[in-house]
Amino acid sequence: MPVSHDLYQDLHYPREIVQQRRKVDDKLDSLLDEYVDIDNQVLAAEAISAGNFVDEDLLHLKEKRLTVKYLIEQQLERKA
What is the pLDDT along the chain (80 residues), one digit of tens a residue? Predict the structure, then answer.
């Protein structure tokens, strides 16, 4: 069963801090929205494949999600 990643644990920032920063940083807000959208797409694709195989589209989505996570980390570091 597909499970969403805990972005805040991966970022090593408390949820409260990220949410506060999100309110004043439009780019961070946009990146976080994009991450959630891609994560939902990954979950849907994993549910369809039921873990039987990993296709190229799913791998592409996972790579895209990872890229956005790195961009979020960079944005958080800029404002720290």
Answer: 566 778 888 888 899 999 999 999 999 999 999 999 999 999 888 888 665 556 888 889 999 999 999 999 999 998 65
Three-state DSSP class for residue 1: coil
Q: Could you tell me if residue 2 is inside a domain?
A: no
Query: Do residues 80 and 36 make contact, with C-beta atoms less than 8 angstroms apart?
Result: no
Residue 37 lies in a domain: yes
pTM of the model: 0.86
14 DSSP assignment:
-
Euclidean distance between CA atoms 71 and 73, whole angstroms: 5
CA-CA distance, 80 to 78, in Å (whole number)?
A: 6
